[in-house]
Amino acid sequence: MGQNIVDEVTFLGHSFVLGVVITFVYDGFLILRRLIKHNMLLISLEDMIFWIACAIGVFYMLYEENNGILRWFAVLGATLGMIAYKASISSFVVKGISMIIERVCHVIFCFLRILLGPVRFLGRKMGRFFAFSGRKGKKAGKCVKKKLTGKLKLLKITLCKH
Hints:
The protein contains 5 helices and no strands. The chain is mainly α. It folds into 2 domains: 3-97, no CATH class; 116-162. The protein starts with a helix and ends with a helix. Helix 1 crosses helix 3. It has helices spanning 3-35, 40-66, 72-88, 90-115, 117-161. The model has no long low-confidence stretch (mean pLDDT 85).
């Protein structure tokens, strides 16, 4: 084979790998969306940033490998890479990594719950104490207000007589 053919096949292989990498990175966004709920605005913003980064990556590959000339077989190679990855292992990667991260987070939260158990216990006791104190304080405040109102009325009556 001539060197030109080898270069073209290498270029096609790099395009294929770039398509796989692009889809793998997008799966990272899908995993993040499974773990943290996103609204439509955030999803659109993420997608826009992702595709701008992909366009820069594809342009860089074309610039380095083919002097910036767009070759349709490179687009075909990237598309085939995306389709091959998506059809083969993408769903397993997204489900598997999401499940692993969820389980690790669950273990961490359980550990923190056990570790912070005494703090939660004291917080509940302090909350009950303050609620009780607040109710008693409210009653005492009403009682003092009644007495002061009575004394104020008596003072007004006394002042009005003089």
